[in-house]
């Protein structure tokens, strides 16, 4: 697999150049239905066709490559991940889960190897939600759970998702019908390879790990309203300082997550008005994101958070508006597919480590269509969503060997 890994490494370098930012200095920025998305799809289509695959682009701008079985009635095994990035992100997040199975299929094609099942690779158009205020656009469309109202959401330039997809050459009206792209009984499952984006595998000294669950996520928008005033003349005891209220919320939210190892959370965005150096803040807005692989723990924490916010801000004579903007339930990976993946790792002479994903992935949508499983690849320093995101090239060989074993095992299971 050394040569396959070298080819994959080169493809990853080329894909990183499909970016609005200079990836070597600023990281990769590639959003749905943009010129950079188009440039990447052109590259992917070329590589897929060279690997003996047929290609198509669906109404959600997902690219689907198909490596057909020799059997006319074969079921389909799907690999895939997302092509989009966060602004100034890393060059492995998402795209690795497209190019790694593609490199393996290219190897199969060169060897003249066919299976008792079809292999499809999907480059999902959007998972991050960096351009439009919705995540998992591509995989939700494939799974048949796309909300048609999302077509009317707008980006920072006021362009709707509907118009962006239409400009990209897609037919977004077809998404309103929301049928799944596949019959459930025609599929063997969905596998995603992804960088871990955390430090667990590196600390364990392991190149890969098995994901047993994908975290649940919820986001909230909090607007706190106080009263502006002169910072030098209003006594401290008489102030209604919105930013002080926000600081209180941030502290209690952080403590809530610190007290429960099943939770992680972040206050990721803050705006302050009027934001003057000598003006008491009148309005402060912040986002609260809460994650847990155990939905019951997350819902319990939400209730406690809402209660604490009300108590603290009421005590400070501040008014507020708190609105939930997003929620995605946690998803367990298929026990059967995970067992097969575990056997594939064992056959590669790699110790098996199970871990849950604290990040969201396309499997959150795809599990509505078929069974899912995930393979994590070690991330250097656990760093992701950053221009310095890195992996070890030798780990690509390990992952390729695991996926090769996986295909052999699934082939043996087919009648």
From TrEMBL:
<dbReference type="InterPro" id="IPR011650">
    <property type="entry name" value="Peptidase_M20_dimer"/>
</dbReference>
<feature type="binding site">
    <location>
        <position position="82"/>
    </location>
    <ligand>
        <name>Zn(2+) 1</name>
    </ligand>
</feature>
<keyword id="KW-0862">Zinc</keyword>
<feature type="binding site">
    <location>
        <position position="278"/>
    </location>
    <ligand>
        <name>allantoate</name>
    </ligand>
</feature>
<dbReference type="Pfam" id="PF01546">
    <property type="entry name" value="Peptidase_M20"/>
</dbReference>
<feature type="binding site">
    <location>
        <position position="385"/>
    </location>
    <ligand>
        <name>Zn(2+) 2</name>
    </ligand>
</feature>
<keyword id="KW-0479">Metal-binding</keyword>
<protein>
    <submittedName>
        <fullName>Allantoate deiminase</fullName>
    </submittedName>
</protein>
<dbReference type="Pfam" id="PF07687">
    <property type="entry name" value="M20_dimer"/>
</dbReference>
<feature type="binding site">
    <location>
        <position position="128"/>
    </location>
    <ligand>
        <name>Zn(2+) 2</name>
    </ligand>
</feature>
<dbReference type="GO" id="GO:0046872">
    <property type="term" value="F:metal ion binding"/>
</dbReference>
<dbReference type="InterPro" id="IPR010158">
    <property type="entry name" value="Amidase_Cbmase"/>
</dbReference>
<dbReference type="InterPro" id="IPR002933">
    <property type="entry name" value="Peptidase_M20"/>
</dbReference>
<dbReference type="InterPro" id="IPR036264">
    <property type="entry name" value="Bact_exopeptidase_dim_dom"/>
</dbReference>
<dbReference type="GO" id="GO:0016813">
    <property type="term" value="F:hydrolase activity, acting on carbon-nitrogen (but not peptide) bonds, in linear amidines"/>
</dbReference>
<feature type="binding site">
    <location>
        <position position="194"/>
    </location>
    <ligand>
        <name>Zn(2+) 1</name>
    </ligand>
</feature>
<comment type="subunit">
    <text>Homodimer.</text>
</comment>
<feature type="binding site">
    <location>
        <position position="93"/>
    </location>
    <ligand>
        <name>Zn(2+) 1</name>
    </ligand>
</feature>
<keyword id="KW-0464">Manganese</keyword>
<feature type="binding site">
    <location>
        <position position="93"/>
    </location>
    <ligand>
        <name>Zn(2+) 2</name>
    </ligand>
</feature>
<feature type="binding site">
    <location>
        <position position="219"/>
    </location>
    <ligand>
        <name>allantoate</name>
    </ligand>
</feature>
<feature type="binding site">
    <location>
        <position position="291"/>
    </location>
    <ligand>
        <name>allantoate</name>
    </ligand>
</feature>
<feature type="domain" description="Peptidase M20 dimerisation">
    <location>
        <begin position="218"/>
        <end position="313"/>
    </location>
</feature>
<keyword id="KW-0378">Hydrolase</keyword>
<comment type="similarity">
    <text>Belongs to the peptidase M20 family.</text>
</comment>
